[in-house]
Amino acid sequence: MQVVWFEMGGGLSDRLLITVHHLAVDGVSWRILLEDLQTAYRQAAQDRPVQLPPKTTSFRQWAERLRRYAEEEVMNDPACAVWLAAQMEEPTALPVDDPAGCDREAAAETLTVWLEMEDTQALLHQALAAYGTHINDLLLTALAGTLGRWTGHSRVSIDLEGHGREDLFPELDVSRTVGWFTSVFPVTLDVTPSVSPGDAIKAVKEQLRRIPGRGVGYGIVRYLTQDGIDSARARRTARIPVGFNYLGQFDAVADDASAFVLSTESVGKEHDGRNPMEYELDINASVVNGRLEVMWTYSRERYRPGTITSLAEAYLQDLQTLIAHCLSADAGGYTPSDFPGVDLEQDALDAILEQMN
Question: Whose CA is closest to 225, among 72, 23, 61?
Fold first, then answer.
């Protein structure tokens, strides 16, 4: 269940509670709904007729086109087949304080940590330029480093969540379509702990760029094809231990010009306590009030609070190290994905660039 409290003023009478089942909305849908609600609210307050932007492609049309895409294109894509085969590898397990502890939602605990506002703004507006990265590249590079040191392995297995609204079909527009488009797909990041911050960023950037269609093909094969369903389900026999989702900038939804602001009141439990927890560590990040907020959800019966606190603090430190590096004078560089028309390895590209310089 997706539940959001909003404040419209100073008193309890100015609270608005919106609850929508997660099957009907995703994070992007919330932005669409809230923008329309605010538009309608302002027009009605001015005694004007409510006029909203035109609708886009229906969720049903998208689903039907996705099924045809699964049958006619995905299974015949060699790049997708190679990537999917790689996801069959055994995921790296995490250390657990008490392996016999309960892993159901009743035992779920969430620790929230924040990146300072100055570092957050540098992350959003300056640090990404050094290596031509997206914010997820830096967030995941830091996470791979933190978990790698903790587990003692260079390989880290993560379920990565994406918006799923990929630009697959030029004839369809889902920019204002409400529905659950979210994609979830496994990613194995391989980063040697001893490499420099720049080399770690390059390595993670390239590993993420090699994922066909930003991972949306995994769910398509798993749920929409007969040939791929058995192998994709087999991947789930060994549970991916970590889930990660960057939800974006909530400041853009409820900014100073908005009629609504996010309330700090609790919305209560979102899951039945009897449900099994999907991950050992479920990590959700977003920008709220100008700061990056990172929430670590875990079972309090499997992990001591001190274990998760140490991990969360180490993650922020690793992220700060990457940001500081990206802002330094000697940071920056290209990776093979910056030259999609040329087949190059990183070492060869570095050699060419060094000769040019």
Answer: 72
Adjacent-strand bridge partners of 298: 109
Give the residues across from 32 on adjacent strands: none
pTM value is 0.87
Q: How far apart are CA 321 and CA 327, in angstroms?
A: 10
| Residue 243 φ then ψ, to 5° | -115, 140
Domains and CATH numbers, the chain: 2-338 (3.30.559.30)
What is the C-alpha end-to-end distance of the chain, expressed in Å?
55
Kindly calculate the radius of gyration of the chain based on its CA atoms and give it in whole angstroms. Answer: 22
Tell me the HSE value of 86 on the side-chain side, using a 13 A CA sphere: 18
Planar angle of CA 201, 286, 17, nearest 5 degrees = 165
289 dihedral zone (left: phi>0; alpha: psi -120 to 50; beta)? left
CA distance 261 to 289: 10
Whether 314 has a pLDDT exceeding 70, the answer reads yes
CA 88 to chain centre: 21
Average pLDDT, the chain: 86
| Helices assigned H by DSSP within 53-194 | 59-72, 78-86, 117-125, 135-151
- Mean pLDDT value across residues 313-333: 95
Tens-place pLDDT, residues 251-271: 666 556 677 777 777 777 788
pLDDT band at 129 (very low <50, low <70, confident <90, very high): very high
The token pair that represents 118 in the structure block:
């100055």
4: helix, strand or coil: strand
User: Which tokens sit at 189?
Assistant: 């990041």
Transcribe 188-245 into DSSP letters.
EEE--TTS-HHHHHHHHHHHHHTSGGGGHHHHHHHHH-HHHHHHHHHGGGS---EEEE
From CA 148, how far away is CA 91, in angstroms rounded? Answer: 13
Q: List 244's β-bridge partners, or say none.
A: 160, 283
